[in-house]
Amino acid sequence: MSRVVRSLYSALMVCAQPLLRSKLRRRGETEPGYLEAVAERFGRYPPAIDSIAGPDDAVRDDEAPLIWMHAVSLGETRAAAILLAELRTLLPHLRLLLTHGTATGRAEGARLLRPGDMQVWQPWDTPGAVGRFLDTFRPSIGVLMETEIWPNLVAGCQQRGIPLVLANGRLNDKSLAGARRWAWLARPAYAGLAAVWAQTEADAERLRAAGARVDGVFGNVKFDTVPDADQLAQGRAWRDAAGRPVLLLASSREGEEAMWIDALKANRPPALDSPAHDATESIAFDHGAVQWLVVPRHPQRFADVRQLIESAGLTVSCRSDWAASPGTADVWLGDSLGEMALYYGLAHAALLGGSFAPLGGQNLIEAAACGCPVVTGPHTFNFAEAARLACDAGAALRVADMAESIDTATRLVHDPQRLQAAQDKALAFTRAHRGAALSTAMAVVQRLRLQGPASL
Question: Known catalytic residue: 108?
Answer without folding.
Answer: no
